[in-house]
Amino acid sequence: MAYFVMYENQKTKERCGFESIATHKAIENIVKGYKIGEDKEGFDKIILSPGDLVYVPTKEERECSELIDWKNIKTLLKRIYKIVSFSGKDLLCVKADISDPIIPTNIKEKVKGEIDWHNKSTSTMEGDVTIKNVCIKLNIDRLGNIKPYNNSIKLKTNRANVVNEPATPYFSKASISTLQQADEQMLLHTSKMNPEERMAYLQQLRETTQNSNLSEEEKISILSKFKINPSDENS
User: Fold this and answer.
1) Does the N-terminal or the C-terminal CB of the chain have fewer CB atoms within 10 Å?
2) 17-53 confidence digits (pLDDT tens)
3) Distance of alpha carbon 105 from alpha carbon 94, whole angstroms
């Protein structure tokens, strides 16, 4: 896992400062009291990780975000992409509804894949826009409700039609005093988790390190008492 940091101008909405950061480096910085990417005055910081889902708005929606109908899942799915990896300042994605490409890449025989040379691309399938320049990070719960990760984006939705997801306790507390202990405990406990528990664990890790509403002291406090599973080992 890694992190991709970029900055969006609060007035012009143009993006810049694209940077890839390794996970161990990000956690190490937080433990030391640093941030994942510096804050820049007049810019909103956006942090992405592999596996995150983003929505690529149409030209009209980019001009007015209120045109996005977050209830119309069928329409939204046509422009949802999954983050696959990063390469320097490039964000590489694939459409979320693609499982395996029909035409695989073969570098030796110089056969280009269905999407690009590595079956992932920096732009949309239509090639009309570079994804990192316009994408909206998504928050999708287990019931299928879709909304932007950034609460500042105006929503066009009827809350009466949205089903609330019940909270599920997957974790118990475990004390972590050093970065090495964090790595060791993460490897030990995630190996014993089922897929749903592992996904929830990694999601909490991402949310903690990426939450711009938490101070660095609060992040350090959360990471130092990180919640892991199974419960019978840390009770």
Assistant:
1) C
2) 999 988 888 888 878 888 888 889 999 999 999 999 9
3) 14
